[in-house]
């Protein structure tokens, strides 16, 4: 049995810098109160601790619970903070999921580099998590349950009590005379987790009393297998993944077995920070998209993204098309933001549009209307943009998002792809080059192993 002493907290924090700020998720319930009490019992940690109460606005007593938490934090001589969140569910989101997402989004924003968030999930919570994943048909990742330690925002999330039995936490709380709050919604079995906790797990544990311990052990086996297979998926994905446009090369992907293809696709979607696909979606992707003719443009879509092929590449795109901002590009701005994903930039260069011409012209960014043509440097005649896009292998859905740059009403540049011959010049450090750049998007660390 894991000993419920302050040494448990010290051991859990051993890999973290000794100066790291410690944030403890504190709801006022018995589990988080015990975690806070254990951590505050370590003098060297106490001054680094901030107890954080997340106010979901879902319970009438939430304000009273926040006040109780503040008093407890003051009694333990640790910092305290209240976070107010909007936990109303979005379409397709359960109340449980909405509250959890709102809570973790707010907590993630609190953490700076090396900061630690400690939460009080215990062994019975792990049991419930694994059972829920099992009933939903989860794969190895889901059946691995919750990790004891994981990257979280700029910092790290730690669960020091994950191997501790619920009964041990209750015994500790009573033995130390702790006072905690009881959330009445925990008794409502309408929610899946509460149904398991209140109705199913007590019944099953009558027959198998050590169920939480044995299921936690199985979750550990799944986590080990998941880690090995995830590393293998990264190695398989490396020669298939194209970093420039974050696509997969279909011909190389098809060289793998169907099972390997699924692992690579899951690994890719996880890298893109998207929800894991269902078995049905993966099957449709393999039969309708990967096996389609090279000149076909099939699409498999979810509420969060759509997967489609163009030539020999598999693209993952937003479910809704983006718009393109247009208007005058001020001379004093080096960038023109087009939408949430991309912008135009002008950078100094030795070839491109003459700086003096740029500064003396009215620069406009326009969207394609159709039928535009351009004369290119070192090529004969005028070329339709449609033909140029086809030659360059630019997917049809991306062409509408390529901005056109006009100088005094005359087409001068097509995104960062082509420059009109009328505006092309060569002069050392006296030109500007137009670039179409993606706006930065943070990714969780995910290895595509060479």
Compose a concise summary of this entry.
This protein has 450 residues and is of the alpha+beta class. The chain has helices at residues 6-12, 30-40, 43-46, 62-75, 95-110, 123-135, 140-143, 166-175, 192-207, 211-237, 250-253, 258-271, 279-290, 355-360, 385-392, 396-399; strands at residues 22-25, 49-55, 79-84, 116-118, 149-152, 155-158, 241-242, 247-249, 299-301, 306-310, 313-317, 327-328, 335-337, 342-354, 363-366, 373-375, 382-384, 404-407, 410-414, 418-419, 424-438.
Description:
By secondary structure, the protein is of the alpha+beta class. It folds into 3 domains: 6-213, Rossmann fold, CATH 3.40.50; 238-317, Chorismate Mutase Domain, subunit A, CATH 1.20.59.20; 327-438, no CATH class. The protein is built from 16 helices and 21 strands. The chain has helices at 6-12, 30-40, 43-46, 62-75, 95-110, 123-135, 140-143, 166-175, 192-207, 211-237, 250-253, 258-271, 279-290, 355-360, 385-392, 396-399; strands at residues 22-25, 49-55, 79-84, 116-118, 149-152, 155-158, 241-242, 247-249, 299-301, 306-310, 313-317, 327-328, 335-337, 342-354, 363-366, 373-375, 382-384, 404-407, 410-414, 418-419, 424-438. The strands form 5 sheets. A 6-stranded mixed β-sheet has the order 3-2-1-4-6-5, with helices on both faces. α10 (211-237) crosses α12 (258-271). The chain is elongated, with a radius of gyration of 28 Å.
Apparent shape: elongated
As residue ranges, the low-confidence spans are 442-450
Average of per-residue pLDDT values: 90
The CATH topology of the largest domain is Rossmann fold
Number of strands: 21
Distance between the termini: 42 Å
Radius of gyration, in Å, reads 28 Å
């Amino acid at each position: 049995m894991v000993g419920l002493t302050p040494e448990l907290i010290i051991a859990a924090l051993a890999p973290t810098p000794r100066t790291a700020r410690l944030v403890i998720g504190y709801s006022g319930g018995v589990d988080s109160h015990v975690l806070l009490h254990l951590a505050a019992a370590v003098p060297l940690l106490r001054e680094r601790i901030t107890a954080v109460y997340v106010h979901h606005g879902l319970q009438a007593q939430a304000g009273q619970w926040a006040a109780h938490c503040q008093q407890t934090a003051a009694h333990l001589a640790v910092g305290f903070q209240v976070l107010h969140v909007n936990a109303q569910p979005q379409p397709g989101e359960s109340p449980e999921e909405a509250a959890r997402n709102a809570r973790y989004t707010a907590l993630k924003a609190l953490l700076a580099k090396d900061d630690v968030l400690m939460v009080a999930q215990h062994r019975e919570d792990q049991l419930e998590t694994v059972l829920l994943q099992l009933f939903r048909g989860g794969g190895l990742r889901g059946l691995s349950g919750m990790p004891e330690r994981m990257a979280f925002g700029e910092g790290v999330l730690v669960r020091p009590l994950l191997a501790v039995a619920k009964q041990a936490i209750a015994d500790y709380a009573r033995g130390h005379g702790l006072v905690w709050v009881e959330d009445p919604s925990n008794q409502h079995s309408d929610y899946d987790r509460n149904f398991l906790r209140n109705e199913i797990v007590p019944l099953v544990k009558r027959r198998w009393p050590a169920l939480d311990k044995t299921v936690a052990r199985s979750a550990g086996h799944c986590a080990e297998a998941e880690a090995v297979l995830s590393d293998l998926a990264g190695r398989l994905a490396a020669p298939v993944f194209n970093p420039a446009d974050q696509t997969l090369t279909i011909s190389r992907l098809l060289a793998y077995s169907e099972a390997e293809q699924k692992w690579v696709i899951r690994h890719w979607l996880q890298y893109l920070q998207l929800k894991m696909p269902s078995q049905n979606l993966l099957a449709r992707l393999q039969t309708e998209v990967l096996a389609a003719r090279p000149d076909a443009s099939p699409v498999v879509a979810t509420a969060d993204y759509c997967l489609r092929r163009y030539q020999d590449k598999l693209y993952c795109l937003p479910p809704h098309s983006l718009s393109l901002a247009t208007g005058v590009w001020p001379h004093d701005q080096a960038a023109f933001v087009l939408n949430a994903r991309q912008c135009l930039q002008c950078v100094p260069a030795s070839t491109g549009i003459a700086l003096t011409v740029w500064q003396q012209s009215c620069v406009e960014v326009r969207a394609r209307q159709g039928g535009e043509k351009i004369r290119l440097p070192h090529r004969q005649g005028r070329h339709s943009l449609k033909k140029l896009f086809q030659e360059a292998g630019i997917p049809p859905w991306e062409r509408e998002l390529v901005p056109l740059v006009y100088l005094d009403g005359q087409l001068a540049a097509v995104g960062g792809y082509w420059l009109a011959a009328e505006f092309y010049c060569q002069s050392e450090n006296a030109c500007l080059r137009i670039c179409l750049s993606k706006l930065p998007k943070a990714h969780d660390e995910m290895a595509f192993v060479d």
